[in-house]
Amino acid sequence: MSGCGAEKGLISIDEALQLIQTQPKVLATEILPLGQCLNRYLAKAVYSEVNLPSFSQSAVDGYALNTALEQLQDVCFELKGEIKAGSVSDRPLLQGQSIRIFTGGKIPEGTTHVARQEIVLVESDSKIRLAEHIRPQADIRFTGEEVQQGQQLADIGQKINIGALAALSMAGVQSIEVFCVPKIAMVITGDEVAETPEDLQVGKVFDANGPLLKAWFKDYGLDVEILHIVDEAEQVTQCFEGLKQQYDVIISTGGVSVGDYDFVRPCAFETGFEQVFWKVKQKPGKPLFFAEYKPVERDGHHCYLLGLPGNPAAVYVAMQIYGKTLLDALQNQDQPLPWFSAILTHELKSDARERFLRMHAYFEQGQLKLQSLAKQQSHMLSNLMQANCLVRIPANIKMEAGQQVSGLFIHN
Q1: CA dist., res. 41 & res. 53, Å (int)
Q2: Strand positions, DSSP E, 57-183
């Protein structure tokens, strides 16, 4: 078969992902206050130093009771004060006694039941009666019933999302050890970026890659500075030379193909980077370049260069697939991407390369279905207004309506 899809030296998408996932050296760790760890990955397991609940407490607003009776409907109890949340009673409940208690209040010694206030009739300041029967230990949250002291709360690799942060906070965790986030340098190459609408008349284009990448990293949880450099070998070389010791990752756009002004790859070699791979059998983004700078010293600073094509759709797809994989790998994350399966609602022509198509996924009668979108060329972005997933289409196969394919939801 002829064509660019059959070009020698191209590696598969799975091979590229495997190399990006396994090649990087995991970053160091740091201990931070829990409140600063949102979206970070745990580097050390966390164990609870307390029981949850730390004491037996009421699950409702109601009355704590002490009784050995089996049938409690219409039974009366002597009322002995109240316990608010945050306060305690030093006096144990005796048989036939009750005490007003509020949600979260500490259960006094001798309590056998808690009756919610909706089934209690207050007959006087010192007497209540139950309108219904309740089971023993009703509406009591017992010490350690959720988490016991010494129990593991989170393991290495756990992402600290909002729920995890709240759960750890409830257990009194003050600080945790997490992997350092990578320091990123963004380099956009090219002479063609327009600064004003008038620039469009002289063959330039507005910059989509800069805003796209800055927003992508912000969504990931990182602030990055973007450098714009022209297509001159000396400038590209100086740029890489200055960045490789300061940053963990350099992500560049443009200049990775075989044109006269594609300097990223030769300049990377000039500054000590070693190629891991170049060119992936995919569409968009075939000339993807991944390289590593290895210091002479054993424990010196490593830097990774992910060279993306210049077309904005290729940049977008590459960041969703490969950029995230690289950043996660540096933080000791080796889980595969969360592909889903869904059904095509229309046919697709075959292509010599595996494709990532922007599509819209939706549920219909309990099935996840996919609708392709127009304008899939690598220089086009307008269909991202409707796309909510990237769908992986195999090479050299005409896809029929009803066939299952793999996709990846995009949330940004």
Answers
A1: 26
A2: 57-58, 62-65, 76-83, 97-101, 113-116, 120-124, 127-130, 140-141, 152-154, 175-179
- Comparing 41-50, 116-125, 293-302, the range with the smallest average pLDDT is 293-302
Q: Which stretch of DSSP H or E encloses residue 354?
A: strand 354-364
- State the pLDDT confidence band at 259, using cuts at 50, 70 and 90: confident
Retrieve residue 29's tokens: 């760790």
Task: For residues 249 and 185, give the distance between their C-alpha atoms in angstroms, rounded to a whole number.
Answer: 6
Integer angstrom CA distances of residue 347 from 148, 351, 383: 55, 13, 19
Residue 411's φ and ψ, nearest 5 degrees, are: -110, 5
Q: CA 41, CA 331: separation in Å to the nearest integer?
A: 7
**Encoding tokens for residue 241?**
């030379």
The pLDDT assigned to 102 comes to 96
- What's the pLDDT score for residue 198? 59
Contact in structure between 391 and 403 (CB atoms under 8 Å)? no
Residues contacting residue 218 through CB under 8 Å, at least 6 positions apart? none
Angle at 363 between CA 360 and CA 364, to 5 degrees: 120
Q: How many helices (H) and strands (E) does the chain have?
A: 7, 24
Q: Which of 371, 358, 353 is nearest to 409 (CA)?
A: 358
Residue 408's contacts (CB-CB under 8 Å, 6 or more residues apart) are: 320, 321, 337, 338, 339, 340, 389, 390, 391, 392
Q: What confidence category does residue 209 fall into, taking pLDDT thresholds of 50, 70 and 90?
A: confident
pTM (2 decimals)? 0.84
Does 312 sit behind a cis peptide bond, omega within 30 degrees of 0 on the bond before it?
A: no
CA 114 to chain centre: 42
Tally Cβ neighbours within 10 Å of residue 343: 15
Share of the chain above pLDDT 90, in %: 79
Nearest to 171 by CA among 39, 33, 87, 47: 47
Residue type, 359: M
Q: 2: which 2 tokens?
A: 């002829």
pLDDT tens per residue across span 52-105? 999 999 999 999 999 999 999 999 999 999 998 888 888 999 999 999 999 999
**CA–CA dist 286, 5 (Å, integer):** 9
